[in-house]
Amino acid sequence: MEKKAHVAVFPFPFGSHPTALLHLVQRLAAAAPAVQFSYFNTTNSNQKVFSKMNLNGYDNIRSYNIDDGVPEGHVFSGNPVEAIELFIKATPLNFRKRLEELVEATGLKVTCLLTDAFLGFSADIAEEMGIPWVAFWTAGPTALSLHMYFDLIHRNLGLTGRTQNSEQTLDFLPGMSAIRASDLPDELQSLDKPDRPFSYLLQTMGLVVRRSSTVVLNSFDGIDPLVTADLKSKLKKVLNIGPFSLPPCQDQSGCLSWLDRHNAASVAYISFGSMLTPPPNELAALAEALEEKKVPYLWSFREDLKGHLLEGFFKRTSSRGKVVAWAPQSQILAHSSVGVFITHCGWNSMVESITGGVPMICRPFFGDQMINRRILADVWQIGIGLEGDVFAKAGTMNALDIVLSKENWNKMRENIGVFKESATKAVAPNGSSTENFKSFIDIVINISS
Ligand code: U2F
After folding, report:
1. How many whole angstroms from 267 Cα to the centroid of ligand 1?
2. Centre of ligand 1 from the C-alpha of residue 67, in Å
3. Which residue's alpha carbon is at the smallest distance from atom 11 of ligand 1?
4. Which residues contact 392 (CB under 8 A, 6 or more apart)?
5. Of residues 94, 98, 99, the one with CA closest to residue 110
6. CA of 344 to the centre of ligand 1 (A)
7. Which end of the chain is more exposed for a tag (fewer CB within 10 A), N or C?
8. Taking 90 as the threshold, does the pLDDT of residue 207 lie above it?
9. Alpha carbon 275 to chain centroid, angstroms
10. One Pfam family name from the record (predicted)?
């Protein structure tokens, strides 16, 4: 019987992770129309990502709903980690069960497992099935490397909590001399037991990712060459296939035409990604700073405006500010009117800012964001952090002054230009990322194993 390539895809259903993976699947499905892609995701997340992306005509992508681990009638406490932990507790059974049902019902064997790298249990599933595990790491190479060096970091720094050894640098690791212990995400700060499921998931991933046949990143060879070379020496195969932007939403609120009416490099674009909102006191401080400096702003603000603490600010400043619930971010960052991006330093946002050539003001919160801030502010010098690492009125006004001053802005633009040039080369025909994507297709559609 002829064997057909069938790729089972497991996303991590939070933040931009599932969209980023579905975007990759879409590109693969376009390049390999004879291959079947089965995308297993929680019902909620499936609804969200499939409504955001136009997959009309992609008959070779099918979605399947899996259990999200939320007990019936469960009332959430408001802590965003709760949904993540419930989901993790339901893994890997939820994925396995649905996958087995599908194979049994269709007789279509799985020939490759393509998953978010967070889902380290995929190593076992792929091994049992005798197929390759291709892991998509949605953040940057330094964060991946830090997870892989988890044991060594703990041995060298003797970490027992965030306050300890905070200024100590990680200069014992290749390409990490600027990173400080305090930049490490919580998941790497202490040796956690399975009672903290997210930390446990990531710590496990750091160990098992070596078993993947390939790790794919939204990065390019010009970024962090030392870290990337080290990753290449430790992993079986590393493919930088970026930079790519996640598909932007429709510009229903007219953000781009609003930007057209502004001077070059004058507007502050503000977004904290797909999961975060700064605490109320920081939101107020940021708003006060923007108002006092009279900086035109475009704010992607996911909260309900009615009765919100900032409702008055948005009304008062409506002649020079625009607030939208979700913005076509990559297009905004490519617009010449945007002078600064006020960001949480999520990896995709950072990549889009580099591609658009926009200097950043950083307010990182968790995960890899502190690492990204350290690199982009201290090493690449394409943005700056905030005094005390939080939004306070004076510090934010100061940061706006620094980034928007002609001399600093030009210098940062020049620094970004170096990355932009290497990014452009990477995705050009015959560029490294273009070639790596071709290898990625070959690996994913190969059915010899
Ligand atoms: C998690 O980050 P997020 O998903 O919160 O943030 P990003 O990686 O920056 O991705 C946000 C994406 O959402 C898009 C934006 C990015 O592609 O263009 N977007 C948009 O289209 N419109 C909007 O109004 C706002 C955003 C995590 F929190 C980070 O620490 C990780 O680095 C990241 C990747 O693993 O995932």
Report:
1. 20
2. 24
3. 273
4. 282, 285, 386
5. 99
6. 9
7. N
8. yes
9. 11
10. UDPGT
| 227 touches 206 (CB < 8 A) | no
Phi, psi of 265 (to 5 degrees): 55, 35
pTM: 0.96
Ligand 1 pocket, residue 349 CB under 6 Å: yes
Classify the phi-psi angles of 4: left when phi > 0, otherwise alpha if psi is within -120 to 50, otherwise beta: beta
Residue partners of 100: CB distance under 8 A and separation at least 6: none
The two tokens of residue 102 are 């599908």
Which 8-state DSSP code applies to residue 60?
T
Look at 45-59, 95-109, 190-204 and tell me which has the smallest mean pLDDT.
190-204
Mutate to test the pocket of ligand 1, among 274, 335, 366 (most ligand atoms within 8 A of CB): 274
Residue with tokens 């998953």: 115
Other Cβ atoms closer than 10 A to 23: 19
Is 273 near ligand 1, meaning CB less than 6 Å away? Answer: yes
Catalytic entry in 17, 262, 335, 344: 17
Is the sign of the CA dihedral 262, 264, 267, 272 positive or negative? positive
Joined tokens for residue 187: 């998941």
Could you confirm whether 59 is annotated as catalytic?
Answer: no
Say whether the peptide bond before residue 296 is cis (omega within 30 degrees of 0). Answer: no
> Given this model, what pLDDT does residue 212 score?
98
17 is catalytic: yes
Contact residues for 244 (Cβ-Cβ < 8 A; gap 6+): 23, 218, 427
**Ligand 1 atom at shortest distance from the alpha carbon of 248:** 21
The DSSP H or E segment spanning 362 is strand 360-362
* Nearest residue to 365 (alpha-carbon basis) of 259, 280, 276: 276
Structure tokens at 24: 């990759």
The verdict on the CB of residue 365 being under 6 Å from ligand 1 is: no
- Give the CA-trace dihedral at 291, 295, 300, 301, to 10 degrees: 0
Nearest CA to ligand 1 atom 4: 16
How far apart, in whole angstroms, are the C-alpha atoms of residue 306 and residue 171? 49
- Beta carbon of 138 within 6 Å of any ligand 1 atom: yes
Q: What are phi and psi of 66, to 5 degrees?
A: -125, 165
Q: Is the shortest distance between the CB of 117 and ligand 1 below 6 Å?
A: no
